[in-house]
Amino acid sequence: TGLFDVTEQGAGLPPAEPTTGRAMIYLVALEDAGASGEAIGCGDSLVPVEMEVGQAASPAQAALSALLGIRTQTYGESGLYNALYQSDLAVESVNITDGTAVVNLTGTLLLGGACDAPRVEAQLARTVQQDPALTNVQITINGQPLESLLTQEG
């Protein structure tokens, strides 16, 4: 026999989960004062963008991994800004309990200036908070609360 033997054991079982899905990530329309989406700091807008995401433990984790995987300052031809483009972050875990998502990221956070702090916070929080049942998002990077890191960076 070869490396793989095909048997009938799987007959009748539902197909495996798809390897990809679609989710919203959030990017920034610079200096448009909320015209394109939710208004955030520095006169910007937070704009949802639907994209294909890989399979993960949760939809929030899949969407966040997709957002963190964008390594360019602007997204495609949209012109939307990604304040996370300089950072090297990965999702360690996303735990959702009683309407609160606790997100643990690892890696390095780099900002391009004081205005990137509210952009990063909004991009991460809204990308996680796609489920309307989520009322609170707590994000840490290497065990440090995101808010304290943004204060130090900004």
What is the residue-averaged pLDDT?
Answer: 87
Overall 3D shape: globular
Count of helical regions: 3
User: Structural class, judged by helices and strands?
Assistant: alpha+beta
Q: Give the strand order, joined by hyphens, for the main sheet.
A: 6-7-8-9
Main sheet properties: 4 strands, mixed
Q: Could you give the distance between the termini?
A: 61 Å
Helix content: 10-25%
Give your account of this protein's structure:
The chain has helices at residues 59-68, 116-128, 146-153, and strands at residues 20-29, 38-40, 44-54, 74-75, 80-81, 88-97, 100-108, 136-141, 144-145. With 154 residues, it is α+β, with helices and mostly antiparallel strands. It has a four-stranded mixed sheet with strand order 6-7-8-9. The protein has a three-stranded antiparallel sheet with strand order 1-3-2. It has a two-stranded antiparallel ribbon with strand order 4-5.
What is the fold's blueprint, element by element?
Elements: E1 20-29, E2 38-40, E3 44-54, H1 59-68, E4 74-75, E5 80-81, E6 88-97, E7 100-108, H2 116-128, E8 136-141, E9 144-145, H3 146-153
Parallel strand pairs: 7-8
Antiparallel strand pairs: 1-3, 2-3, 4-5, 6-7, 8-9
Helix pairs in contact: 1-2, 2-3
